[in-house]
Amino acid sequence: MKIDHSLPLEYSTEENRLKILGFWIFLGAEIMLFATLFASYFTLVDRTGSGPSGADIFEITPVLIETIVLLTSSFTIGLGVHAMRIGNKKAMLSFFAITLLLGAGFLGVEIYEFVHYAHIGAGIQTSAFTAILLTTLGTHGAHVTLGLLWGTAIILQVKKRGLTPETANKSFIFSLYWHFLDVVWIFIFSFVYLKGMM
Amino acid sequence: MSELFPRKQVMGFVFSMVLTAVALLVYFLDMSFTAGMTVLLITAFVQAGLQLVVFMHAGETDDKGSIYTNIFYGVVIALVTVFGTLLILVWDM
Amino acid sequence: MEFFERFAIPHPSPAIYASMVAIALTMVAIVAGLTYFKKWGYLWREWLTTVDHKRIGIMYLISALLMLFRGGADAIMLRAQLAVPENKLLDAQHYNEIFTTHGIVMILFMAMPFIIALMNFVVPLQIGARDVAFPRLNALSFWLFFMGAMLLNISFVVGGSPDAGWTSYFPLAGTEFSESVGSNYYMIAIQIAGIGTLMTGVNFLTTILRMRAPGMTLMKMPMFTWSVLVTNVIIVFAFPVLTVLLAMGTFDRLFATHFFTTTNGGMDMLWANLFWVWGHPEVYILILPAFGVYSEVISTFARRNLYGYKSMVASMVLISLLSFLVWTHHFFTMGQGALTNSIFSITTMAIAVPTGVKIFNWLLTLWKGKIEITTPMLYSLLFIPLFTIGGVTGVMLGMSAADYQYHNTMFLVAHFHMVIIPGVVFAMLAGLTYWWPKMFGFMLNERIGKWTAWIIGISTLVAFMPMFFSGLDGQARRMYTYSESTGYGPLNMISFIGAVGLAVGFVLIAYNVYYSVRYSPRNISADPWDARSLEWATHSPVPEYNFAIVPQVDSSEAFWDAKKKGHELFKGEYEKIHMPNNSGVPFLMSCIFFVWGFSLVFSMWIPAIAATIGILACMAHRSFEKDHGRYISVEEVEETESKLRGAS
Predict the structure, then answer these.
(1) For a Cys-Cys bond, which of A92, B16, C352, C556 suits A84, CB 3.0-4.6 Å?
(2) What are the residue boundaries of the Heme-copper oxidase subunit III family profile domain, all occurrences included (chain A) (predicted)?
């Protein structure tokens, strides 16, 4: 494996560069995945049948907590990648750990939210609106959950194997994924919640 | 310690918080639907662009042409799909 | 016993019992054969665990050919049922199941893998690469596709086939009107195969964008590679739509949600809408690589460089964008307003323009060329007029006002078969014949090949031209029979004769393979067609590492220049070559996906959860494993090269 030392570790081999570009392309596909969910959401948002509408069930507090937590986690993982680039493994691991903790916090609030919806009669079977609402949120939440597992695996590997071209590459790609989830959340926050409560 | 908090990223974070606060105005102020949607569209897309450039380092390698084309293409098709679907199933049904 | 009742066929017939026995006997024969000839180890080491793009391509090819015969058998049954009025060969339910699986199998499990087979085999060679960007992912793509295809194929003996059409429109495909597990199979089998295809898209885009030989800029890529690049752009942006759509359909069927129901706000039209948001680009995913094959074949056998390279590229890029802008033309009659229909009529007609540019480019390539009629060329020459019939009737269908007359008649069926068979199937057969010597080191027999091409070409016309007329007379598609007084009888009988002709053609292909394996000379050169692009610059069959030395390129026809203008392709010394290791995980993971899918089809939650954990475990294994590939030493390269030089 040829290692190019003039580049940051995560770009230092051809294989690494391929993986980063490949992941960007995958994120392009993810844009379409969420766009399809949004297209369906906007189509079905007023089709509430006998169930509640968004304005009936949305609450600003949990949504605001989720947003701030996730935006902060996006910031901390950015700092983690920065720490990785200046070779500070300890700081990097701390920032990654903080990111995952914030992610877990987000997920906790989202689970609370889902339980609450089910409790007030907005389950997934209630109407077309609740089905697409919970599917859209759930798809994002499932991404976050997978991110938590993936991030844990990466922390373990960096801890054990140190910062190598391979582990740095994985960490960087994970950060792309995490930022992307943040972008998706911004759209959910704006066009599902705020638009619904406007 | 300060080398762990690069200015660009801190500013980016502050700016993203400001954008969130601006978006929240549509909840706290009594706006028309058009005004509210305009605010949301602007804050959401600026926020997305911010994440892309500041945090995701989209333009840092010689693949940036491919990366930006890919994202731009994705966004265009995403918008076509969303608005096309709305046209067919909601606005013109 | 109650547990097993769910696996019973809801609507059995002697033909299905006979198939069950046939399947069981085939399985026993395969297992016995492998054991008797002691081939289990060979199968595992050389095929099931391979990450070599060439072998994966060949496995795609074998699957595609098998599925061609499965889908073809369906087609013969459909046409036989319609050959005479009031026929009792099939009942309505069987007819529904057969036209549904015919569509799914032919589009998703025949045409798609055929295209991906050629992509896999040819693209890394054409760009001078050693493999694709992510060889392991490539193996996973194949096995996911394969398991998805197998899952759908067992449906007709376990639990019942889907019967709501390949478009599976709701509410018909909902639990209310489709009670059997058939539509569950549809949702989940296609989901699994679709995930594989999406990964193929990511893989090939990365490969083509980053792994081209030195000197090969984008505008110096061979046209087939260009077509694959554009196709994979479409795959990456279209397949996620299918993923979401199928997930929502699965939820409606398994978890009683209301996405597409007619109660509680559900909207069945959303299914049709999203299906075609994916479905129309899918049509271009099929046709663009076919155009790429024709471009290669026509310029090779007209002995001229391709006319209008830049306009070819521009028209493909334009088609890729337009393909996402026309989907409404599949449901002009659904009830949306005139404004929407007008917009989509215009975009639909606009897409004929870049397609027309391509047709003229091929014609101008032929103009003044020294045309040599080989089997691949014959298919290409048959394609141009036949495809034009399909294309022009497409423009007719694209006019929304007129579409109210044609919609869901046999006219439509005739149109898309006249597009897909000359467009895609001819191209795949041309490509198969063209690249066969590169794959296997001997040629397919030309005499049998040309007979086959003529039989298939004429039979296509005989089978589908009558449908244009019966369709305009009002014969609806998907109706399992008709009365004698309609007068459709003679036209349908002609179609049946054409279908038999097509079957004869496909059997001849199988015979040609058999004949050529036995009698074709093995001492052919590495470049038997006197071709123009890089894949012909290496040996036949291709060594594992493709090129001993990475080629240097400075035009879109580097190999032709090397032959005619003295351009030096291979400069420098042998070096050790880095190659990826084989892995059984993609195969294993796909097997778990099969179990996962099967469990979901029958709502068996415990095995489904167990399989989900298994899938995650495979991913975790991949994350933690250390695999840096291996090196082929210089000595080994030298040895292989001198041996192959002797052979070819």
Answers:
(1) A92
(2) 1-197
Topology of A9-197 in CATH?
A: Four Helix Bundle (Hemerythrin (Met), subunit A) (1.20.120)
SS3 track for C56-80: HHHHHHHHHHHHHHHHHHHHHHHHH
**CA–CA distance from C376 to each of B89, C367, C527, C581, C640 (Å)?**
45, 18, 15, 35, 31
Percent pLDDT > 90 in chain C is: 83
Residue C114 belongs to domain with CATH number? 1.20.210.10
In this prediction, residue C1 carries a pLDDT of 58
Q: Dihedral (C-alpha) C381, C382, C383, C389: value to the nearest 10 degrees?
A: 130
Cis ω for the linkage preceding C171 (within 30 of 0): yes
Domain count, chain C: 1
> Where on the phi/psi map is residue C457: left (φ > 0), alpha (ψ -120 to 50), or beta?
alpha
Residues of chain A with Cβ-Cβ distance to C204 below 8 Å are none
**C265 contact B CB<8A:** no
C409 - beta bridge partners? Answer: C476
Q: Is residue C35 part of a domain?
A: yes
Residue C579 pairs in a beta bridge with C630
B4: chain A residues, CB-CB within 8 Å? 79, 82-83, 86, 88, 91
Burial class (CB in 10 A: 0-12, 13-18, 19+), B22: middle
> Does the pTM exceed 0.80?
yes
Return the SS3 of B80: helix
- Domain membership of residue C63 (yes or no) is yes
Assigned domain for C464 exists: no
Facing A195 at nearest CB: one of B40, B55, B74: B40
- Determine, for residues C210 and B74 on separate chains, whether the beta-carbon distance falls below 8 Å: no
Mean pLDDT of A117-136: 94
8 Å CB contact of A29 and C240:
yes
pLDDT over 50 (residue C648)? no
Query: For position C646, what pLDDT does the model report?
Result: 61
Contact yes or no for C583/C559 (Cβ under 8 A): no
User: Which chain C residues are Cβ-neighbours of B75 within 8 angstroms?
Assistant: none
Distance from CA of C52 to the nearest CA of A (A): 17
Helix, strand, or coil (residue C476)? strand
Query: Which residues contact residue C146 at a Cβ distance below 8 angstroms, ignoring those fewer than 6 apart?
Result: C59, C63, C590
In the prediction, which pLDDT does C643 show? 84
- In terms of C-beta distances under 8 Å and separation of at least 24 residues, what long-range contacts does C171-174 make, across chains too? C171/C260, C171/C261, C171/C262, C171/C268, C173/C249, C173/C253, C173/C260, C173/C271, C174/C252, C174/C253, C174/C260, C174/C261
Whether residues A72 and B16 touch (CB distance < 8 A) is answered with no
* Maximum C-alpha span of chain A: 63
Q: Which of C290, C141, C283, C280 is nearest to C228 (CA)?
A: C290
Chain C residues lying within 8 Å of B73, measured CB to CB: 233, 237
Q: Are C449 and C433 in contact (CB under 8 A)?
A: yes
Q: B77 CA to chain C: closest CA distance, Å?
A: 7
Describe the crossing of helices C426-440 and C446-472 by its angle, rounded to 10 degrees: 160
